[in-house]
């Protein structure tokens, strides 16, 4: 079994390869892409080599510079399928988060619903408080999730769930003693 850090390394390498392939296909230099993305050339080089993981903001800039959506970098070629097998899940992460994400739903056909399996390591690293259009559903498979809605904290255990409008200020963290595994479902798609 590949360790969590090993999965993160493989995901960073795969992401970097996709970015480099698209940049080269567009005949852009590292400097051109980095400038358009608002990041440094050395950082982009590290991302392409799998030595660094971009934050959501950096990945968004890279996607914009290459004329694609962020979704392009995290979807797999098998997105047309409606069935996802557990042994085929591919976890990915972002530099500004220790969490790992695996897409459970496909993005083909303009679907609006997104479902993600999230692995949150222990620690009090609360996500940024956010609001956006849509709604969200969270189901805790294992561990403990601290969910904050409009400043009120709810501690969810395995088997607990929450459903809320995304326009409500919300954030989450794992304050428990072990990794939390959560299914997140939301509209519209975020990745």
UniProtKB/TrEMBL annotation:
Q: Which GO terms describe its molecular function?
A: DNA binding; DNA-binding transcription factor activity
Q: Which organism is it from?
A: Paraburkholderia eburnea
State the protein's name: XRE family transcriptional regulator
| PROSITE patterns xref list | HTH_CROC1 (PS50943)
Q: Name one GO cellular component term.
A: cytosol
Question: Is Hydrolase one of the keywords?
Answer: no
Q: What Gene3D superfamilies has UniProt attached to this entry?
A: Jelly Rolls (2.60.120.10), lambda repressor-like DNA-binding domains (1.10.260.40)
UniProt entry keywords in alphabetical sequence? DNA-binding
Coiled-coil ranges per UniProt: none
According to the entry, every stretch annotated as the HTH cro/C1-type domain falls at 19-73
């Amino acid at each position: 079994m590949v360790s969590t850090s090993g999965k993160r390394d493989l995901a960073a390498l795969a992401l970097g390869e996709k970015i480099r392939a698209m940049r080269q296909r567009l005949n852009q230099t590292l400097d051109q892409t980095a400038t358009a993305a608002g990041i440094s050339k050395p950082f982009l080089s590290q991302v392409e080599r799998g030595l660094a993981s971009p934050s959501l903001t950096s990945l968004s800039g890279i996607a914009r510079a290459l004329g694609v959506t962020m979704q392009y970098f995290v979807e797999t070629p098998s997105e047309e399928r409606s069935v996802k097998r557990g042994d085929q899940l591919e976890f990915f992460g972002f530099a500004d988060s220790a969490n790992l994400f695996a897409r459970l739903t496909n993005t083909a056909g303009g679907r609006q619903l997104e479902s993600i399996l999230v692995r949150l390591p222990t620690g009090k690293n609360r996500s940024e408080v956010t609001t956006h259009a849509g709604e969200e559903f969270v189901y805790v498979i294992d561990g403990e999730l601290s969910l904050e809605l409009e400043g009120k904290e709810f501690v969810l255990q395995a088997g607990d769930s929450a459903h809320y409008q995304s326009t409500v200020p919300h954030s989450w963290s794992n304050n428990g003693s072990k990794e939390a595994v959560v299914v997140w479902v939301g509209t519209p798609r975020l990745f």
